[in-house]
């Protein structure tokens, strides 16, 4: 009887030892299923995950992606709970060195003038990151280190451009100089806020300015560093080196020299348009909230002659700038015009 009990005890110990060993072996495997920034036991694990993403290839346009995810912390009027979570995560998140040597797979290589596009994986500590969203509230998160300058700050309330000197003063007050490497982004790329600010800076003579590929949506989806604190830069002087050729006027449009692209909607195009204008909407240059690939854009712009200047017009600068930006990436000589200016001149001539 005693031998039987001793045998049972040994069997029990053997069973317990087997279970413990199995648990130890399975623990590393469980960690293999953690997403970037989604798990880990501390700061080092989070940093390694973020650095791993930064060193990886960014998904290309056209790949199946879920773009319907809602990020409550980025919406105007987000509740205090979301703000508390953001603040807590910000205090825990380590500083990350965002210097990166772009890989050969960067999407900027898919376009003839890809230098206007800022890939998600190529941020540098030298970049001046500017959040140009018009909807961001004080409790909403932004990219770590970004300063805030809403795109509408460069416009009058009626949507027309502020004078050049006034725009330069706004940039200088934000701490942006003409020599800075600037990266602009909005909540999502399709809003056109980032491309408008990029175009406006180009008209003022800024040489090194790019728009973040995918906007804040892609940055957030990648679990890259965010914060809610307000960042500021010392005020500076912004020097102008104007490029008036990026903004077309009525006489040039009326001359028949340039090709004309209407970037409004189909219904507006049907109600009235500039003579011989092609319809190319902002939606036609986007896929899943990001720019189409160069190959796809070649198909979109197939009816245009690259040897001739293209003038893009719309009722608002955001829509026009999205199409202008896509054309610029593909190597077209492109300018922006407004439907309102065309109407004003046409009415005055028939009155």
Helix content: 25-40%
Total number of domains:
2
Contiguous helical run count: 11
Q: Class of the largest domain in CATH?
A: Alpha Beta
Radius of gyration over C-alpha positions, nearest whole angstrom? 26 Å
Main β sheet profile: 5 strands, parallel
Beta-strand segment tally: 13
Major sheet: arrangement of strands: 1-6-5-2-4
What fold name stands as the CATH topology of the largest domain? Answer: Oxidized Rhodanese, domain 1
Shape: globular
Please identify which CATH superfamily of the largest domain we are dealing with.
Rhodanese-like domain
Uncertain regions spanning at least 5 consecutive residues? 1-7, 23-105
Q: Give, in order, the helices and strands.
A: HHHEEEEHEHEHEHEHEEEHEHEH
Mean pLDDT: 76
Broad structural category: alpha/beta
Strand content: 5-15%
The CATH architecture designation of the largest domain is 3-Layer(aba) Sandwich
Give a short synopsis of this structure.
This protein is an alpha/beta fold and 351 residues long.
């Amino acid at each position: 009887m005693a031998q039987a009990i001793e045998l049972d005890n040994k069997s029990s110990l053997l069973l317990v030892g087997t279970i413990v060993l199995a648990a130890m072996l399975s623990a590393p495997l469980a960690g293999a299923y953690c997403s970037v920034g989604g798990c880990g036991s501390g700061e080092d694990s989070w940093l390694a995950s973020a650095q791993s993403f930064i060193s990886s290839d960014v998904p290309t346009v056209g790949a199946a992606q879920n773009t319907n995810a809602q990020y409550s912390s980025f919406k105007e009027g987000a509740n205090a709970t979301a703000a508390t979570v953001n603040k807590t995560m910000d205090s825990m998140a380590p500083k990350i060195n965002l210097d990166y040597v772009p890989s050969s797979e960067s999407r900027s290589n898919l376009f003839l003038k890809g230098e206007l596009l800022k890939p998600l994986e190529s941020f540098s500590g030298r970049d001046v990151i500017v959040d140009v969203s018009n909807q961001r509230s004080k409790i909403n998160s932004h990219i770590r280190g970004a300063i805030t300058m809403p795109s509408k700050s460069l416009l009058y309330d009626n949507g027309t451009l502020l004078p050049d000197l006034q725009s330069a003063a706004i940039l200088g007050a934000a701490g942006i100089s003409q020599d800075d490497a600037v990266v602009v982004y909005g909540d999502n790329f399709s809003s056109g806020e980032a491309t408008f600010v990029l175009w406006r800076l180009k008209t003022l003579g800024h040489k090194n300015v790019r728009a973040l590929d995918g906007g804040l949506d892609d940055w957030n989806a990648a679990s890259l560093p965010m914060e809610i604190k307000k960042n500021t830069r010392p005020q500076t002087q912004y020097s102008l080196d104007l490029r008036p050729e990026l903004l077309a006027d009525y006489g040039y449009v009326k001359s028949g020299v340039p090709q004309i692209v209407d970037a409004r909607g189909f219904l507006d195009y049907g109600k009235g348009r500039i003579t011989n204008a092609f319809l190319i909407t902002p939606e036609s240059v986007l896929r899943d909230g990001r720019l189409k690939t160069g190959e796809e854009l070649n198909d979109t712009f197939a009816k245009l002659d690259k040897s001739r200047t293209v003038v893009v017009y719309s009722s608002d600068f955001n829509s026009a700038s999205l199409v202008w930006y896509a054309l610029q990436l593909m190597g077209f000589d492109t300018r922006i015009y407004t439907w309102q200016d065309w109407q004003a001149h046409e009415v005055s001539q028939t009155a």
